[in-house]
Every structure is written in structure tokens, then in C-alpha cells.
């Protein structure tokens, strides 16, 4: 149970980074860099050092925290820093942090001198259950998420519950939304298990199951030609709401809060355009709205949301394509949905919280 | 003879782009973009259109010509342009131009939405015999060449002698240096054939042989873990001289002129540190200095050249590594050379032209 195999590398669970020393040893790396943001450098780096017996054979590259800094300017800064350090192709980059760090660090590593090795140590629940698996790297351009990136696999991934101790409850819930999604799209039993358990106390076993589900899906379709798109359930509308909130709200939604909204809207679309029953829709709506705070999607934002959806990466030939539930635990993809249905789903979300 | 197979795609020779229509048809692309610089848009685009029976089903993305524009700012511009055009993952990018266009266009395409299809139509001799094969994409950072990039394969490559009609003699010679290199590292007979022929009249058969040699090498080692490094013969010093010239000279050296210098220096190193005989060194020196104009490597530039060599991508563990000739037609790699030998080789080059 303490490791999963994923496309040629391992995902380790609660090993206290024990295999890392050997990986570094065997890789004969010329330099090791740890990439972290200011917060993880403060909170997680001491734990990282402790786990590695005060290992200090690395240079720290620090960046500013936050999704708004997952941009090309920071990448340029990191590329130049690596160059200044004389980093060659045999260097190793260890990404220690949340999804921003693993996405951006993976992108920088996969393009520096046409690609150097990297290892991901996701330190938030969201990055452990989502960004950790599947080889996606990326940065945002003009607030459009992951508009530029690569498919590149890390040498290894380490998931350590220890790091979650420093994660605030709101951030834990952000990751929890992806876990709910994993149940909804692929495993009914897991969904009901999550619901029955206390969402304020997430077990390593539950994290393991989420990573396993995601791993099965991405292994079957690494390049997102088909099946992998089911992981986007809740994300077409969710990403649009997230981008909008990021650009307009004083206190923007977390990723998971936006995806929670997206899942309610897209469950509505699943009922209207696929085979999700009214009872299942109601089940999903009730549970998610119990866990996540209410948010008002302003009517005047609808047009802008539509613009964001148009640039969704799943789209083909100008059509906004959705991944929709057929039932709880089963998902389909490449579904066309009318503009008016999308608007209805946003109104449905707003109504549900007005109750 | 009119096509070569390379890692899952074809390199077509003088087909007047005949297979392109079918590739576009079969790919069911949502959009087709042609990426060109101002010069190729003026000189090559009309030929491109004519070959495709006035095909107009594409949008043109134009950039400024020149190596100094192979930078991240232009990439950002192109990514945003693609975004503005609503380009999705099913779009196709056709890179029409020299190495700057194919390198940068390939990088942009391989990272836009984590990768879209692209086709290369190299229009200079240099890009036909060099950039066209091997799946390297890249851009320069702070004048350091190809510091950021990916290994990504195009859907197809088209080499058309027709485009060379607009290439000035100096640019033809720039590409010819790579052809000489192909002979020197892998095919003695081909080297002597090139020498015997008129370098002002380069045949498609010769281009074909160069592409074939490069293709054999990169197919054996796509990720440049070993053998592929022989293609860097002449490039460790050559790139450094090129970077220096680009930053200091009013009329900078072309790539090939710099590589010609690099090949004389590294032939000297090959004689001193490998098995290249004195006669072979003299043969190479004489031939290259007959074809390429003299250049003075200033003594005060030696330190800066050394700095550029330190950031060469082939280096490992802080060592500048060279690819050296064992004889004409045979090359080895990962050779360490002393700092003083490097300086000697630069002085050897300067002396040779002082004669």
C-alpha cells in the first residue's frame, strides 16, 4: 500500500521520503535544486530536511506563492536562475509545494535545456490527489489556466500526510473537491464512503484511493485523447468560475470551491443531457452544498464565463465540450451542451443556494 | 528517394508539398496556422500557396526575422495570438521558414495547450539539413542558444529545393557548414564528394544524404544521451563564437561561419586529444578556410568564450565536453579537454588565417 506504479515511475505514500536518497544517488545528478514558494520554504522545507537527516546538498529556488504567480515571468526567472547556477542537463529539480509549484516547476524542468529530471513532493491535499499524477505541467497565460505546458513525467512522486498538518482547513476542502469528483466519475462506493466519513479528517487510505483512481484513468489515456477527459467533470464551468473569481473577487474562490460549483452545475447538465437521475442530481447537490460555502454567480458574469469556457482545452472545432455523469460513479465525455442549458445550470446553482 | 522515414513521420523531398493536402485532410484540424517571419512571408509564402493550388484555409502568424528574435517574448506573443484566434488542441501549426521559425514554432506548438500538431517546411539550406530532423525545438534565453525547448516531433517535414532559390549565397554557405560536418563525423566518402563538387551549386542529392546521416544518428539516440552528441562537432567552440559575435559584432557571423571556425578549432583538439592525424587536420583546415571567410577571434574575447562554453548543453558535472574526430568520417563524444588546449585551438585558428 505504500507505493503505486504510474507510467514508469513510483508514487510513494508516507515513506518519510526514504527512497529519495537512493534516487538521488543512482541518478548521479550534478546538482539538486529544491523549488518552493515562500510559504512552503518556511513550513515544509524544515520537515523535508528532517526527513532526509538534515540533507543539505541542494540549492533552494524560491518563488512567490499563489496561482497569480504561475506565469511565464516566474518561469523566465527560474530558467535564468538555473543558468546562473550553471545547472546542466544532469541536474535534478525537486518541486516541494502545492499545485502551482509542481505545475510550474515541472514545466520549467521539462523545458530547461530540453528537459531535466524532476521529482514532485506535493504538500497540499489538492496537489497530492490531483497535480501529483498524470504528467501534466503548465502555467497560466493571461489568467487562462495551464494554457502553456507539457506532458512530462517525474522520476518519482512522494505523498506525505505529514505535510498536510500545516494546510489550513479551507485548502484541505479545496483538495477534497477533487476526491469527491473521483468518486462521482469512477467509483460510487468511494463517493459514499467519503460522504459517510468526516470531511474534516481525511485519511491516507482515502487519498490513496483517489490517487489510484486518477492513476488508472491517466494510464489508460496519458495524452488526454479520450477517457482522461472524464477528470474534467466539474471543470469546464468550474475553471471558468475560478478564472472569473481570480480576476474580480477580493477574496477569490479556491480551486476546489470553484470545482464544487462546477460539479453542481455540470451535474445539472448531466441530468438534462445525459442519464443522471433527478435523485442523483439532488444527492450531489445536497452533499456538495453541505460541505462548501455558498457563492453567488453574478448574472453579469455569464458572458465572461462563456468566453472562458470557449478557451477550455477540451474544446474541439469551436465546440465547448463537457464531461457529464451518466450516474454516480460513471462519466462520459465530449458532450455538446447548448448555451441556454449552460445558463440554466448557472441559475440552478444560484437557486440551490438561495433556498 | 523522395522520402525518408524518421521516428514515425516522413521527410519529403521535392514533392511540391503534394502530400500536405492529405495530411491536413486526415488530421481533421480545426484550424491551420502558418508561422513565418516577415521575410519568408514575403518570399516563400507565395511559393507555398502556388504549390498548394492557392490554398488559403489558414491564418498567418508573422514574426520578426533573425536569431535575436528567437526569444520568449515572441513565444508569448504567438501563444496569445493562438489564444485570440481561439486555437484549440486540434489545430495545426505549419512552420515555414529557417531554423529560427522551425525551432521557435516547434516550441510554441509543443507547449500550447500542452502540445498541438506541427509541420516543418524549412526554407533555408541550414534548416533543411539541420533543424529539419531530430525533433529539437528551442528558443534562446539571454543570448544563450536553445536554452529552453522540448524534444517534439513534427507530423511531417517538407524539403523543397525551390525555396532555396531565394536564399542568398552567404546563407547557403551557412547551411553548407553542417553538410561538411555530416561528412566529417560520419561519412568520409561524402566529405570528399562535397569537396569535389562546386559548393556554390548544392544538389538535392547532397541535401538528401546530409538529412539521411543526421536522421540515422538521431534515430539511434533521440534524447541525446550519447551518440547524438557527435552532431555537436564544431559546435562547442562554434556556438560560443556565434554567441559572442551576435552580442558584439556589427555584422555578426552566420551560424555556419561560426561552425566553420568551431570545426577548425575542434579538429585541432581532435588531433591533440584524439586520433585525428596531422594530415587530416591540415586537410580540414585547408578546405574549410578555402570556403569560409577569415575571422579574427579577439584575444580579449577568450574569457567570454569560455563562459559561453560552460553553459553548453552537452556539459555534465561542470565539465565542458567535446565531440572530437577520430578520423575524417568518424567521431567520438564526451571528451574532456584542458582549458589551455582550448585557448591553443583558438590561437591555431587565428594563425591559420594569418598565413
From TrEMBL, chains A, B:
SUPFAM superfamilies registered for this protein in UniProt: Dehydroquinate synthase-like (SSF56796)
Residue ranges constituting the 3-dehydroquinate synthase C-terminal domain according to the UniProt record: 175-315
Q: Which residues form a coiled coil?
A: none
Name the Gene Ontology biological process terms: aromatic amino acid family biosynthetic process; chorismate biosynthetic process
* Cofactor annotation: Co(2+); Zn(2+); NAD(+)
EC code = 4.2.3.4
Gene3D superfamilies per record: 3.40.50.1970, Dehydroquinate synthase-like - alpha domain (1.20.1090.10)
Q: Which InterPro entries match?
A: Dehydroquinate_synthase, DHQ_synth_AroB, DHQ_synth_fam, DHQS/DOIS_N, DHQS_C
Q: Which residues form the 3-dehydroquinate synthase N-terminal domain?
A: 63-172
Lyase in keyword set = yes
- Report which superkingdom the organism of origin falls in: Bacteria
* Protein keywords: Cobalt, Lyase, Metal-binding, NAD, Nucleotide-binding, Zinc
Record keyword NAD present:
yes
Q: Which GO terms describe its molecular function?
A: 3-dehydroquinate synthase activity; metal ion binding; nucleotide binding
Please provide one cellular component term from the Gene Ontology annotations of this protein.
Answer: cytoplasm
| Protein role | Catalyzes the conversion of 3-deoxy-D-arabino-heptulosonate 7-phosphate (DAHP) to dehydroquinate (DHQ).
Q: What is this protein called?
A: 3-dehydroquinate synthase
Species in which this protein is naturally found: Pedobacter cryoconitis
Amino acid at each position: 500500500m505504500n507505493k503505486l506504479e504510474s507510467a514508469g515511475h513510483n508514487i510513494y505514500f508516507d515513506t518519510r521520503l526514504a527512497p529519495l536518497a537512493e534516487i538521488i544517488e543512482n541518478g548521479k545528478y550534478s546538482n539538486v535544486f529544491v523549488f518552493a514558494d515562500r510559504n512552503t520554504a518556511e513550513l515544509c522545507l524544515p520537515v523535508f530536511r528532517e526527513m532526509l537527516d538534515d540533507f543539505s546538498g541542494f540549492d533552494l529556488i524560491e518563488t512567490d506563492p499563489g496561482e497569480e504567480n504561475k506565469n511565464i515571468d516566474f518561469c523566465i526567472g527560474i530558467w535564468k536562475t538555473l543558468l546562473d547556477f550553471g545547472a546542466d542537463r544532469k541536474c535534478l529539480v525537486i518541486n516541494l509545494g502545492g499545485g502551482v509549484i509542481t505545475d510550474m516547476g515541472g514545466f520549467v524542468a521539462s523545458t530547461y535545456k530540453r528537459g531535466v529530471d524532476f521529482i514532485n513532493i506535493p504538500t497540499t491535499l489538492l496537489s497530492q490527489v490531483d497535480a501529483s499524477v498524470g504528467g501534466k505541467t503548465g502555467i497560466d497565460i493571461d489568467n487562462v489556466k495551464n494554457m502553456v505546458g507539457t506532458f512530462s513525467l517525474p522520476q518519482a512522486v512522494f505523498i506525505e500526510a505529514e505535510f498536510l498538518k500545516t494546510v489550513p482547513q479551507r485548502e484541505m476542502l479545496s483538495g477534497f473537491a477533487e476526491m469527491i469528483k473521483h468518486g462521482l466519475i469512477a467509483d460510487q462506493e468511494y463517493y459514499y464512503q467519503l460522504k459517510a466519513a468526516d470531511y474534516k479528517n481525511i485519511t491516507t487510505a482515502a487519498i490513496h484511493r483517489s490517487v489510484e483512481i486518477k492513476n488508472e484513468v491517466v494510464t489508460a489515456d496519458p495524452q488526454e485523447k479520450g477517457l482522461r477527459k472524464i477528470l474534467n467533470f466539474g471543470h469546464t464551468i468550474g475553471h471558468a468560475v475560478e478564472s472569473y473569481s481570480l480576476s474580480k473577487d477580493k477574496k477569490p474562490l479556491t480551486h476546489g470551491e470553484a470545482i464544487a460549483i462546477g460539479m453542481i452545475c455540470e451535474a445539472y447538465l448531466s441530468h438534462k443531457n445525459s442519464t443522471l437521475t433527478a435523485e442523483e442530481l439532488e444527492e450531489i447537490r445536497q452533499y456538495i452544498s453541505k460541505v462548501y460555502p455558498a457563492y453567488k454567480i453574478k448574472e453579469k458574469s455569464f458572458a465572461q464565463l462563456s468566453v472562458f469556457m470557449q478557451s477550455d482545452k477540451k474544446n474541439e472545432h469551436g465546440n465547448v465540450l463537457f464531461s457529464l455523469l451518466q450516474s454516480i460513479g460513471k462519466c462520459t465525455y465530449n458532450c455538446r451542451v447548448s448555451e441556454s442549458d449552460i445558463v440554466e445550470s448557472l441559475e440552478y446553482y444560484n437557486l440551490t443556494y438561495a433556498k
